[in-house]
Design goal:
Elements: H1 2-21, E1 30-41, E2 46-59, E3 64-77, E4 83-84, E5 87-98, E6 104-117, E7 120-124, E8 127-131, E9 134-147, E10 150-159, E11 171-181
Antiparallel strand pairs: 1-2, 1-11, 2-3, 3-5, 4-7, 5-6, 6-9, 7-8, 9-10, 10-11
Length: about 180
């Protein structure tokens, strides 16, 4: 937890530096992205789930945004009598590059950060076994469209160094949200 808090504070500091260097442009320097996600894991033991995210960002220029993201995703087990799965939390630095400055703005980006995987409880033959997964480094490339203040994005989260038995937390997600601020000056 201390490690996650430290990384999050560094991300905020980097965002502040980016804002200080932002001197001109067509867009307001600060915005906050909010939204929901539908995630589909890559393995056989986990089923799709839902989540939400909050992502404050700063414009470095009209096309490049840097930010810090908090995301929570709830994945469920395919066989709930055998496995109980809980939430994945993500604390990440975000980098987004917008291709145009029009009202319809395609973008590509990457999130790099820490994924906190809560423990899993496995039930077999009447016994419960709890497996601690802990915090893992991950990256998430993404592509999307921003139309006015509405955003849609496809993202794939690749989480490194997972438990050998439960290594299917890598997941693709579709995110639908909106952003406050960051519009044209």
């Amino acid at each position: 937890m201390k490690k996650s808090l430290g990384i999050f504070l560094v991300l905020i500091a980097i965002s502040g530096i980016a804002e200080a260097q932002y001197g001109y442009g067509s867009f307001r320097s600060f915005r906050i992205d909010l939204g929901a996600s539908y995630s589909n894991p890559g393995g056989d033991e986990l089923d799709a789930g839902f989540g939400f995210y909050v992502n404050p960002k700063f414009h470095v220029n009209d096309n490049l945004l840097l930010g810090a993201k908090y995301e929570s995703t709830e994945l469920t087990a395919v066989d709930e009598d055998y496995l109980d799965v809980s939430t994945i939390y993500c604390y990440a630095t975000t980098i987004d590059y917008y291709v145009s400055n029009d009202n319809l703005r395609p973008f590509a980006g990457i999130d790099i950060g820490i994924y906190e995987l809560e423990s899993i409880t496995s039930r077999s033959m009447g016994q419960n076994t709890e497996i601690e997964l802990g915090s893992k480094l991950g990256i998430s490339p993404k592509i999307g469209l921003s139309f006015g203040h509405l955003d849609i994005c496809f993202q794939y989260s690749l989480i490194f160094d997972q438990n050998e038995r439960f290594d299917d937390f890598n997941h693709s997600s579709i995110k639908l949200g909106f952003h406050l601020g960051g519009g044209e000056n």
